[in-house]
Structures are given as C-alpha cells and as structure tokens.
C-alpha cells in the first residue's frame, strides 16, 4: 500500500454515477503481487439525493473508467 502525503496527492478522473468526476488519490493498493490495483480516493458524488457530497471510495483500477491527470493539475 502506498499512501500519498497531503500536497503530493495525484488526481484521477473517475467515471461514477454516469459522469466524470475529479478525485484526489489518498492511497494505492496492490493485490496479487501487483496484478490487481485499487485506488482510495476522495470524490464528490450524489448520495441520498444530496449533490456534491464529499466521500471516500475505493475503486479497482479500470482504464475505461479512470484517467490519471497530469502532475500539477488542480
């Protein structure tokens, strides 16, 4: 597991709930010797009818639904 320190956290675009969202990466988890990778992110989603609720989620890496943003992007 790799935890990213505050200020050095990369960003991902994550497709969730039918939309692309920008998410802050908190940690990267490697399973099966690196064969499977998951990312723990802070992301704003619609939850219980409330829009832009900040929440933490963990997603398996999927290049169809996740796109890394260039370093320095905020």
Description:
The chain has 74 residues and is mainly β. The protein has no helices and six strands. Strand 3 and strand 4 form a beta hairpin. The model has no long low-confidence stretch (mean pLDDT 92).
Low-confidence stretches: none
Rg of Cα set: 12 Å
* Count of helical stretches: 0
Q: What portion of residues is helical?
A: under 10%
**What's the order of the H and E elements?**
EEEEEE
Write down the overall mean pLDDT. Answer: 92
Look at the helices and sheets and give the structural class.
mainly beta
Main pleated sheet: 6 strands, antiparallel
Distance between the termini: 24 Å
- Beta strand %: over 45%
Shape: globular
- What is the number of strand segments? 6
Helix and strand arrangement:
Elements: E1 2-3, E2 11-16, E3 19-31, E4 36-47, E5 50-60, E6 66-68
Antiparallel strand pairs: 1-3, 2-3, 2-6, 3-4, 4-5
Brief overview, please?
The protein is mainly β and 74 residues long. It is 0% helix and 64% strand.
């Amino acid at each position: 597991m790799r935890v990213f320190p505050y200020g050095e956290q990369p960003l991902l675009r994550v497709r969730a709930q039918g939309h692309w969202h920008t998410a802050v990466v908190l940690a990267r988890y490697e399973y099966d010797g690196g064969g499977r990778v998951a990312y723990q992110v802070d992301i704003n989603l619609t939850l219980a009818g409330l829009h832009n609720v900040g929440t933490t989620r963990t997603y398996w890496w999927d290049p169809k639904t996740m796109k890394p943003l260039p370093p320095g992007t905020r």
